[in-house]
Amino acid sequence: MQLMTRNSRQRKSYALVLCREKIKQEAVSISKTLGFGVLKEFCDADARLHGGLQTHNKVDKAQCDVDHDCYTWISSELQQINALQAKLDASNDEDEKRALEEDTTGKILWLCWRGLRQEVGQVPEKVIDRIARDQRVCYQVAKARGQALHEIIEIFQEALAEPVEDDQAHLRRIMADAEAGTSKYDLLHSVPFFKVIRN
After folding, report:
1. Three-state SS for 130?
2. Which of 42, 70, 78, 191 could tie 124 with a disulfide, CB 3.0–4.6 Å?
3. What is the distance of C-alpha 42 from the center of its chain?
């Protein structure tokens, strides 16, 4: 009987190790895409919960309050992308083309991330809160869930800490520039130093 119990525990332990490894692989894979922000949302939600802060319900600027507002914003962004593309097609200057390519790509990535974020919404916050505060389960189950959640968050944090390749870092930077409203094209034309060099 003890042998069966020990074998059963060993199989469960082995299954847990395999599960953790699979989660690590998936988290690292996700961290190399636009989904890195979703992993960060889970880590931030966990930090808010364990930091004693109230879960936040404020609407993030990446989320649309109303479908109409979202539609208006998307239409505006698409018009801006089309205008940037038209400038790019008309330009003969290599510096302008590079700046316009970055602005266009950044806006497209930001539009995609914002759409992804809208779909995800407050899911990370709700999941973390539900796992941590579910009063329908006994103490041992709640404790086991809390430990598993802690391990998963650590895996997400490790995945986010992994260095990204240069091209991924570049894409993240131009997406952040688009979110901040920074235009390489506008900067190129607003800095006198560049105007002197280009002329």
Report:
1. helix
2. 42
3. 10
Closest CA to 58 of 128, 132, 131, 125: 125
Query: What pLDDT, in 10s, does the model give residues 182-195?
Result: 999 999 888 765 55
Cα–Cα dist 62/115, whole Å = 8
Q: Is the pTM of this model over 0.70?
A: no
CA gap 101, 95 in Å, rounded: 10
CB 156 within 8 A of CB 42: yes
- The Cα 154–Cα 163 span in angstroms is 16
Contacts of 155 (CB under 8 A, 6+ apart): 20, 23, 24, 27
The per-residue b/e assignment along 5-33, b for 16 or more CB within 10 angstroms, e otherwise, is eeeeeeeeeeeeeeeeeeebeebbebbee
DSSP H helical segments within 32-122, as ranges? 36-50, 67-90, 94-120
